[in-house]
Amino acid sequence: MTQKMQKSVTTEGSDIMKNSDLKSTLSWKPLHIEERLNVLSRTVKMTRSKTPDQNTKLLTKLEKWLEDIQSIQDGLKKIRDELVPDIERILGITFQYKELFQVAMFQPSTKNIFLELEVQYRRSKNKPLDSDGFEEMINLSEMAKVIALVGDAVISSSVLQYLWEPHLGHAGIITQRKAEIVSNENMAKLCDKWGLYEYRIHFDPDAPSKSEMDHDKGTLLEAVYGIIYIEHEYKQVLRLVSHLINIQ
Fold first, then answer.
1. How far apart are CA 64 and CA 19, in angstroms?
2. What stretch of H or E contains 161?
3. Is 16 helix (H, G, I), strand (E, B) or coil?
């Protein structure tokens, strides 16, 4: 995790799963992604208005950036207005930082536009974002991976706790059942049920294979449980993991 990412997702303890009564040891610093995208869009539009018609190469780049920014903005709005309310209704809880869901949906293919914009405006007097701001936008997909990593940890722990038998006489059965529950194929089923996959923010040109898609869907589901942990602590994860365990 980069230093800037640590500012957004920080840990206050070495073991996030010490006991089920432990309050959330993760915090979130809002990135204000939508506001930053508005600034980037206005800046690119201003650059376009000042670019001579004969500079077709730059104009083509500017048009593509505006198109990509708009695509991201549309996706973020759908996540905020559609996905988050749906997940809140399904789970029976509310989320303070809806932006966490937006971050969780960013895929690696979104990096390029922010890298290109950073290069374009690096020495500009009207730089739309400072260095930290650009770095955070570039690393959105990495932050998504961190949120999913948190989810992976709490899902694994809560599923084990759900299946736990004190006498351990059937340890092999528990291990097998846990592996089945946390498999990408099983998590993909719940991802589909919650409709997460269609909200990805990406510019991937090709359709992935089924195994790749199941992996991506599993990662998205892990991110949702990571968000539950960040905002609502481990007890809620333990309660809500039943959605995954009982998925048909």
1. 50
2. helix 140-163
3. coil
**Distance in angstroms (rounded) separating the CA atoms of residues 164 and 242:** 14
Q: Can you give the length of the chain in residues?
A: 248
**Short-list 153, 142, 104, 152, CA closest to 1:** 142
Per-chain mean pLDDT for the chain: 89
Token digits for 155? 């899902």
Domain that holds residue 156: 3-9+31-245
Q: Would 15 be classed as within a structural domain?
A: no
Is residue 9 helix, strand or coil?
strand
Going by pLDDT thresholds of 50, 70 and 90, the confidence category of residue 61 is: very high
Asked whether residue 103 carries a pLDDT value surpassing 90, the answer given is: yes
Three-state DSSP at 74 gives: helix
Q: Report the b/e string of 146-174 with b at 16+ CB within 10 A.
A: bbbebbbbbbbbbbbebeeeeeeeeeeeb
Nearest in space to 159 (alpha carbons), one of 141, 139, 182? 182
CB within 8 A of 1, min separation 6: which ones? 9, 142, 146
Kindly state whether residue 123 falls inside one of the protein's structural domains: yes
DSSP letter at 203? -
N- to C-terminal Cα separation, the chain: 35
Contact 115, 138 (CB under 8 A): yes
What residues are paired with 106 via a beta bridge? 201
Number of structural domains (the chain) is 1
Written as six digits, the tokens of 8 are 């957004």
